[in-house]
Amino acid sequence: MSVSGEQLPNAIETIAVLGAGTMGHGIAQVAAMAGYAVILYDTSREALERGVERIERNLHRAIQLGKSTDDERDATLQRIRGTRQLEQTLRADLFIEAVPEVLELKQELLRQLEQSATRPFIFATNTSSLSISELAVAASCPARVVGMHFFNPVHIMKLVEIVVGQQTAPAVVEMVQAVGRRMKKEPITVRDVPGFASSRLGVALGLEAMRMLEEGVASARDIDTAMELGYNHPMGPLRLSDLIGLDVRLAIAEYLYRKLGSETFRPPEILRRLVAEGKLGKKTGEGFYRWDVEEREKG
After folding, report:
1. Residue 281 three-state SS
2. pTM of the full predicted structure?
3. Over the stretch 133-149, which tens digit does the pLDDT of each residue have?
4. Theoretical Cys-Cys bridge with 40: which of 9, 28, 176, 248, CB 3.0 to 4.6 Å?
5. What is the DSSP string of 141-165?
6. Cβ contact 174:164 at 8 Å
7. 178 vs 26, 27, 72, CA distance in Å?
8. Is 35 left (phi over 0), alpha (psi -120 to 50) or beta?
9. Contacts of 84 (CB under 8 A, 6+ apart)
10. Best CA proximity match to 121, nearest among 74, 72, 179, 77
11. Measured CA distances, 280 to 65, 135, 144, 215 (Å)
């Protein structure tokens, strides 16, 4: 199969996940559970070890809940291989990058892969807001660049947002849609606009909840409960912001405010203050909630 004179993989059999953090290890887990051979790459040994430990913990929890078996856990773990050497990922048919939300970092990674690869591949980015078309400027074949935006926690959330850049080939979209379905996700397809569909809506709701907290309308817990019980959201917007990371929320809000020019996306002062104080949410133990307390209360 080819696009614009460039070859595509005949099939997706091996997936390389670039970045072993919160999103990366989650994507690696669902890919391995779907039967793909998975190469999990990170430059940090500690990040790799943490990522694998979290996958093991998630699988153990699934067994406790009766949603998986010991054999399924073992098979999943056997399909995952960790590496700190980018060249050891080059046999992948599909690369899914989950590195920090810095366009230049993602572009450099794409350039390195294209310079080193000896076989055709698709490059998918898990970005929640950056332009696929701007990322693809770094590619010799932008037709093979696409967005695959997963949601946290990846092993639980059913949605994957397929983002189509200006030059993304229809055949590439079809292939990553099929990957998403095999991972037991529901793919939606959106055009490459700032914030896509999910981030634009989710960030708007989260920022308004922060403004309400700032104005003393209600407590964080009561604002979240309003959305959980009144609108059937599985998690309130402030607790979700803590889970995503307040630094990530701030970066996305600043990007959308810059690109769209709407006051809806101007970051509230409370968000800037918490990030400046290093209170980034669950990953630091405190944000809008104290997470050691939260986890004790939830057993």
Report:
1. strand
2. 0.85
3. 999 999 999 999 999 99
4. 28
5. -GGGEEEEEE-SSTTT--EEEEEE-
6. no
7. 18, 15, 22
8. left
9. 41, 42, 43, 44, 45, 48
10. 179
11. 30, 27, 34, 21
Count of CA atoms in the C-beta half-sphere (13 A) of 139? 26
Which stretch of 127-131, 201-205, 295-299 has the lowest confidence by average pLDDT? 295-299
Q: Say which residue the tokens 């919160």 belong to.
A: 22
Closest CA to 252 of 58, 43, 38, 100: 100
Residue corresponding to tokens 């769209």: 260
Dig out the tokens for 126 from the structure. Answer: 């898990």
Apex 225 CA angle, 219 and 229, nearest 5 = 155
**Gap between the Cα atoms of 271 and 294, Å rounded:** 20
Task: Give the separation between CA 175 and CA 294, rounded to whole angstroms.
Answer: 40
Cis peptide before 153 (omega within 30 of 0): yes
